Amino acid sequence: MSSTSSDLVPVEIKLHQKSRMLEVVFDDGAHFQLPCEYLRVFSPSAEVKAMTNRGDIVKGKQNVNITTITPIGHYAVQLTFDDGHDTGVYSWETLYELGKNQQNNWSSYQKKLAGVKSPEVSGPIRVRILYFVNLPGELGLESEHTDVPDSVKTVKELIDWIKGRGEKWNKALSKHPLKITINKQFVDPEAIIRNNDEIALVPAPPSVAG
Description:
By secondary structure, the chain is α+β, with helices and mostly antiparallel strands. Helix content is 28%, strand content 30%. The strands form 3 sheets. It has a 5-stranded mixed sheet with strand order 8-7-11-9-10. It has a 3-stranded antiparallel sheet with strand order 1-2-3.
């Protein structure tokens, strides 16, 4: 008989505060890297659930971090975040489901966020772009801070804009499929970029790209 998420127990929970990541390993071998922003946005607290039921979403938590992890019996942990949120009790089942459905959950969140008007004034936003694998050698830099035109809203539009810098850029970014992360969270090409985001471009050979 196969195990369900409610039967599983974490054998390791480790907070990486520098990278704002909670690492969770379960006794079935499942290994999840859960960004603090993701855990905050999908908090199981009554407050966040009420927002979800109203059709609202938690916004502006790109730089949130976890400060304290408090065990709750033998079935859950309470996470305290540095924005003051401390009412979310994450059961083992909740952590497992958040890890298992991370990509779909985050993609859905990004789409909802795209429909939310930004309180920021219109105009260029500033992002940090990190280049990996073959890109540093071909482009001559590993990272950069750059102002992005107001017309560039999504990851796909950002990449097209970078390619437009010239033949060198277009060739380097077109050679292999790209894996993209925003603030260390994998995203799809339609993900919205925001001011002060850290965006990583990671070329992947076609044989391993998914």
